[in-house]
Amino acid sequence: MKTKSLLALLGSCWLVSIISVQGAGQVEDQQDGFISLFDGKTLEGWKAKEPKYWSVRDGVITGESTKEMPGTANQFLVWQGGDVADFELKLKFRVNGNNGNSGVQFRSVLRPDGLAVGYQADILYSGGYLGGVCDEMHNRKGPELLSANGKKTVIDAKGKRTATDLGTPAKMRPLGEWNDYRIIANGQTIILEINGVKSTELTDLEDGQYDLKGFLGLQLRAGEPMKVEFKDIYYKKL
Question: Is 63 left (phi over 0), alpha (psi -120 to 50) or beta?
Fold first, then answer.
C-alpha cells in the first residue's frame, strides 16, 4: 500500500475511534480519556423526577421555572450512567434569575421525594457560594457551605473546620456569557475551578459524613423564576 494511502487509512481509523459511541448520550474522546455525557440534541442518558422543568434548546440542557410553572422545590436532572466516585468533570454553564442559584450535584443520593443529599459544586452570581462545596440537605453540625470560594478547607474526623486563603476568589463572567466549571473529586479531597481559577479545595475527613460515591446531577433551584443552562459536559474516571 502506498504511504499516502496508509496515512489516510490511519487517519480515518483515528477519527472513528474518537467519535465512537459509548452508550446513551456518551461519546468518548480518546485523546484525553473524557467522555461526553450530553449528545447535544436530547436528554438521553438523563432523568428527572419532574421532567417538565428540563429540555434541550439550541443544543443546550435547559432547566427553567416560570410564574406559571414555579419552582416549589429543588429539581435535579440525574445522569443515568451509574454512581461516580473519583472523577474529573468539565462543563459550561450560564444562569439567569433567582440570584443565579444552581449547582452540580455529585457523590449524592436521591430521596424518594426527588431531593438530593450530598456534595454540591455550587453556583451563585458571586460570594462564598460561587465555586464552593456545599453539603446539600446536610445533617452534620455547622454551615452547609463546607468550603467557600477562595478558601482551602480541612474538616477533621471530629468535624472541626480549618480554612486558609487560596488567593483571589473566582468570578463569573458577565451575565449571558458562558462560564467554565471544573470539578475534581479524588478520595476525600475535592477541588473546584470556575473560569480557570481554583475556587476552593476541600479535604473532608469527618467521620460518618464524607461521601465517596453517588449520583451526578444538575440542579434547578427552588424560588424565583430562573433559567440555568449546561453544555459541553465531559467526564473522566480517575
Answer: beta
- What CATH code is carried by the domain that includes residue 128? 2.60.120.560
Please provide the distance, in angstroms rounded to a whole number, between the alpha carbons at the two ends of the chain: 40
Question: pLDDT tens track of the chain, all 238 residues?
Answer: 433 343 343 343 333 333 333 444 555 554 589 999 999 999 999 999 999 999 999 999 999 999 999 999 999 999 999 999 999 999 999 999 999 999 999 999 999 999 999 999 999 999 999 999 999 998 999 999 999 999 999 999 999 999 999 999 999 999 999 999 999 999 999 999 999 999 999 999 999 999 999 999 999 999 999 999 999 999 999 9
* Same-domain check for residues 101 and 118: yes
**Overall domain count for the chain:** 2
pTM of the model as a whole = 0.88
Are both 6 and 89 inside the same structural domain?
A: no
Domain that holds residue 2: 1-36
Distances (CA, A) of 33 to 104, 135, 166, 178, 219: 21, 29, 29, 24, 26
